Amino acid sequence: MTRWDVVRMYADPLLKQLEQALLKKHALAAVVLAYDLHQELMNRLQEEMKEELEKVIGHE
């Protein structure tokens, strides 16, 4: 599984909700969902960076 696959796995459900909120012109819901999406992606990125750092430190 590539990193992009992992990102899509986390992002797709939130993107679908965001799309629906935008289509229904629910601006506040769209803002909240966009924030949730950003947080989810940043958390995943942080986890991956931590894993990579642990691999590098472990090999020294």
What does this structure look like?
The protein is mainly α and 60 residues long. It has one domain. The protein has two helices and no strands. Helix 1 packs antiparallel against helix 2. It is elongated and about 50 Å long. It starts with a helix and ends with a helix. 2% of the residues are buried.
Cα(first) to Cα(last) distance is 26 Å
Helix count? 2
Total number of strands? 0
Tell me the series of helices and strands, N- to C-terminal. Answer: HH
Biggest sheet architecture: none
Shape: elongated
Strand content: under 5%
Kindly give the count of domains. 1
- Runs in which pLDDT lies below 50 for 5 or more consecutive residues are none
On the 0-100 scale, what is the average pLDDT? 85
Q: What share of the residues lie within helices?
A: over 70%
Radius of gyration: 15 Å
Structural class: mainly alpha
List keywords for this structure.
60 residues, elongated, mainly alpha
